[in-house]
Amino acid sequence: MASDSSQALLAALAEGGPIDVCSLANVLGCHPTTVDRRCCDLQADGYACHTSSGVYDITAEGRSYLAELNE
To answer: Of 3, 25, 30, 39, which sees the most CB atoms within 10 A?
Structure first.
């Protein structure tokens, strides 16, 4: 799953989470629908969690995975 977009999204969640999809889209320069799909993928992998309507945060597993990607 290690794509540049996933890594960038996880980094944005780590720095500013919990954060809503529209704000993430602005940070990443992507369409909100694209960001929402990627967040759903990260949630399925256990790296992000949906905290409320349209708001996501990084999980402990996501932080560990991001640290591995940044090594």
So the answer is: 39
**What are the tens digits of pLDDT across the range 44-65?**
999 999 998 889 999 999 999 9
Buried-exposed string 28-63: b where 16+ CB fall within 10 A, e elsewhere: bebebeebbebbebbeeeebbbeeeebbbbbbeebe
CA distances from 1 to 7, 42, 44, 50 (A): 9, 9, 11, 19
Q: What is the pTM of this model?
A: 0.87
